[in-house]
User: Which sequence fits this backbone?
């Protein structure tokens, strides 16, 4: 592989105008296709195979026009202190506000609280009105949300306290443009410091933007045909930028090292692609494996996001292997700092200077056991809170108290009890039963006797009379463990009800769906880990021609992810340092967080593993002693791995300052995971383990050595191959 990529790099360097023109043409074509493509349909969030989803689907079928997945709003009215909401002027203000909304844009119904049982609190101070919309959450029109807020303000003007809960005010997720811009700016600063050259620093940023632009354009262009929603490209954009910068960063760094060895720019580009480019290929494959593995989770939206992001990573690899050397052809020796270029003709062999990376490696190889124990124990302590991990989907209770949704949530809890914010919708399918009303009544009676259920509403039948909906109000909040147990208890009685009444009972609603999502994520975690880690270990065996190094890489990754989850639990579940980063309400960790962390961080961690350890193996293959090879690898690559990690940490940490709790949680988790993996695992534990193993680190059974292909990632064949033809004359300023 190294020989092929070496030739590809030289060819792209020489044919730089053609290669650049081809990439520009492909980008322009993708942009045109994206501009002309029809809008992608919203495939929504579905959870196939769960009881809650089955009930949602049946509701949409049996209650046509009911929009089971439509947005809703709850207007919470609280009377002035010492007054009742049922007092004449207060009640009139409530009724007027609800009537104002009843015929509004996208509204399918607005229920007067004084005409609905249970909508006024027992003490008479609070009432709520439910407003249903035909559009889904996040798609309610601006006109409809403006009307909702105006109606609430009219109620406030009448002297009432009015807040708006529900999901009608939910906005579509921010594309994160400001976060990406901040991340790019921080990346530019780190790259300038790393390279000492504006030209060299700008190249990774330029190629990353081109790769992401092409990937996002293709996602938009084929979104309608492939059923990709508007949220599918979020992960693709984030990872496309991350790996695009990383891959170009490593190739440019190797190119500069080859120039410093005295090689011509053309030869340096060829060798950079042949060595660092080989590492890019396999690093990219590990990321693709992690992302494609999201398909095993069983959530269509997550699977599409993973495949779209994997496609963008493939584009980033192709850009790194072809466009990067082509652009290097235009900048030539300007990739080097000015003071190095002035020393033209004086070869400065790379790898002989004792830099910080080399000194750090020497410190570790002198005392590997102590360093290893310290690193493992330290991450183990950080991972300890993860043993108390509780998964869920945070709702309005996790929002800042400055939001009307959070204030509405608190008012409903005070007026009606904590479980009122998480009602359970029980669907009763009485089709084919002898007495549908009696069957539904028996279900209502049974639910009323379940411990933990506060209130049960009478059955509401559809027009056909074959399906009824019953609402059960728990005694506990939607995110509490007792509510989860209650859902399982009700579902456990479904079989008995089926036998006695013939009715099929399904528990659904937002609370039940969140519980099902969390359970499905938990069930999918181990299979996902097995698929991703297993395939990656096999791939890394091919890369490193070793059994122990890939296993060590996978174990180190698991340790860093566990530590990151521990940090998330400590902050968002236990409340440690919560005030410092603006977490106003502790609660369960987002259900997708573990799998999301594994998918994203695994790819980035294996990037650092491949780039760092291939350079160590390169020194070992070329005759160095194991410990000296470790020092050589760190001398060459520690600086650039550190720069890549700082870039990623800065980008992810930018999300911690956002107001949305789930985004804040993702930012902290990703930043912590990259920091732990890059600096503790890859830069500390990895060299300590390699030093302890010595030559055994590169052990491979003879039968396996004959079985797996020799891909020559370290480029040993480039050192033994016959000299290449004289370089083609370059029209660049050097």
Assistant:
């Amino acid at each position: 592989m190294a020989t092929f990529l070496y030739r590809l790099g030289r060819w792209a360097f020489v044919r730089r105008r053609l290669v650049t023109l081809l990439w520009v043409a492909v980008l322009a074509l993708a942009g045109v296709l994206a501009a002309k493509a029809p809008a992608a349909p919203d495939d929504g969030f579905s959870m196939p195979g769960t009881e809650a989803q089955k009930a949602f689907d049946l509701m949409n079928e049996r209650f046509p026009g009911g929009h089971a997945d439509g947005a809703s709003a709850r207007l919470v009215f609280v009377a002035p202190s010492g007054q009742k909401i049922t007092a004449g002027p207060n009640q009139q203000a409530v009724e007027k506000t609800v009537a104002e909304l009843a015929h509004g844009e996208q509204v399918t119904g607005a229920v007067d609280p004084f005409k609905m049982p249970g909508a006024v609190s027992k003490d008479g101070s609070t009432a709520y009105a439910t407003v249903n919309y035909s559009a889904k959450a996040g798609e309610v029109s601006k006109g409809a949300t403006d009307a909702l807020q105006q109606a609430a303000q009219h109620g406030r003007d009448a002297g009432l306290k009015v807040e708006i809960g529900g999901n009608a005010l939910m906005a579509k997720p921010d594309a994160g443009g400001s976060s990406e811009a901040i991340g790019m700016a921080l990346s530019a600063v780190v790259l300038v410091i790393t390279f000492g050259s504006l030209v060299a620093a700008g190249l990774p940023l330029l190629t990353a933007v081109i790769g992401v632009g092409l990937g996002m354009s293709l996602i938009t262009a084929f979104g309608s045909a492939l059923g990709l929603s508007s949220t599918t490209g979020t992960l693709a954009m984030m990872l496309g930028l991350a790996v695009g910068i990383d891959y170009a960063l490593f190739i440019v760094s190797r190119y500069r090292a080859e120039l410093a060895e005295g090689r011509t720019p053309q030869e340096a580009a060829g060798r950079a692609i042949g060595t660092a480019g080989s590492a890019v290929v396999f690093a990219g494959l590990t990321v693709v494996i992690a992302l494609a593995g999201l398909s095993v989770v069983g959530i269509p939206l997550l699977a599409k996001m993973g495949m779209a992001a994997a496609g963008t990573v493939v584009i980033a690899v192709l850009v790194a292997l072809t466009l990067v050397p082509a652009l290097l052809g235009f900048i030539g020796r300007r990739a080097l700092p000015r003071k190095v270029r002035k020393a033209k003709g004086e070869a400065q062999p790379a790898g002989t200077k004792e830099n910080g990376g080399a000194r750090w490696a020497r410190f570790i190889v002198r005392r590997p056991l102590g360093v290893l124990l310290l690193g493992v124990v330290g991450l183990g302590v950080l991972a300890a809170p993860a043993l108390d991990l509780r998964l869920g989907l945070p709702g309005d209770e996790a929002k800042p108290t400055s939001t009307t949704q959070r204030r509405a949530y608190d008012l409903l809890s005070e007026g009606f009890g904590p479980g009122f914010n998480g009602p359970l919708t029980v669907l009763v399918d009485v089709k084919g039963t002898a007495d549908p009303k009696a069957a539904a009544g028996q279900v209502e009676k049974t639910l009323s006797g379940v411990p933990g259920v506060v209130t049960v509403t009478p059955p509401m039948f559809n027009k056909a009379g074959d399906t009824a909906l019953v609402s059960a109000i728990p005694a506990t909040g939607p995110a509490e463990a007792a509510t989860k147990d209650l859902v399982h208890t009700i579902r456990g009685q479904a079989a008995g009800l089926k036998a006695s009444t013939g009715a099929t009972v399904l528990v659904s609603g937002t609370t039940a769906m969140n519980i099902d999502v969390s359970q499905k994520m938990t069930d999918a975690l181990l299979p996902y880990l097995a698929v991703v880690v297993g395939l990656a270990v096999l791939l890394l065996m091919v890369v490193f021609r070793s059994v122990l190094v890939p296993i060590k890489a996978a174990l180190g990754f698991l340790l860093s992810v566990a530590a990151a989850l521990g940090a998330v639990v400590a902050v968002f579940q236990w409340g440690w340092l919560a005030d410092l980063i603006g977490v106003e309400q502790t609660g369960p960790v987002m259900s997708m967080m573990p799998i999301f962390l594994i998918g994203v961080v695994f790819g980035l961690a294996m990037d650092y593993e491949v780039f760092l350890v291939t350079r160590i193996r390169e020194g070992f293959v070329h005759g160095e002693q194991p410990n000296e090879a470790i020092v050589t690898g760190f001398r060459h690559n520690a600086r650039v791995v550190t720069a890549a990690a700082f870039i990623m940490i800065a980008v992810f940490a930018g999300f911690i300052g956002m107001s949305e709790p789930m985004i804040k949680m993702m930012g902290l988790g990703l930043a912590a995971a990259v920091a732990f993996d890059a600096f503790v695992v890859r830069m500390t534990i990895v060299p300590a383990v390699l030093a302890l193993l010595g030559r055994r680190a590169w052990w491979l059974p003879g039968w396996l050595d004959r079985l797996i292909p020799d891909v020559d990632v370290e480029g040993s064949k480039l050192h033994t191959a016959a000299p290449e033809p004289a370089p083609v004359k370059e029209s660049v300023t050097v």
In short: The mean pLDDT is 84.
